[in-house]
Design brief:
The chain has 115 residues and is mostly helical. 88% of the residues lie in helices and 0% in strands. The protein is built from 5 helices and no strands.
């Protein structure tokens, strides 16, 4: 399970840190805004749900993955966009809520399947 945790941590770093850096560095103008919308409204929420569903497999050991993912998002956006922007705190809270909800649903489904 440790290997999977490291893999998900690396994926979180790529999605939440490298993708914003790539968007800021290589995509300029209106296309950059479109890429940011794609990241904020499609890629990051989907990733939060996926990491939450994975965390539900072993909630005792993996509960921190959705939290770490949301914190990495906040760090990445504050570094590459605007330090201290409060709107990004709201996005991080929503991503955290999505991850926790997916984790709890995954645990619930897993317990129902075992009965």
């Amino acid at each position: 399970m440790k290997k999977n945790t490291i893999l998900w941590m690396a994926a979180s770093m790529v999605v939440m840190l490298a993708f914003p850096w790539l968007a800021v560095t290589f995509v300029k103008g209106d296309a950059g805004m479109a890429v940011c919308f794609l990241l904020f409204f499609a890629v990051n929420p989907l990733y939060s749900v996926l990491i939450g569903a994975f965390s539900g497999k072993d909630i005792r050991h993996l509960w921190s993955l959705p939290v770490i993912s949301a914190v990495l998002f906040l760090i990445g956006t504050w570094i590459f966009f605007d330090m201290g922007e409060t709107a990004f705190i709201l996005y991080a809270a929503v991503y955290l809520a999505l991850g926790i909800a997916a984790m709890l649903i995954s645990v619930f489904i897993r317990k129902k399947m075992q009965k």
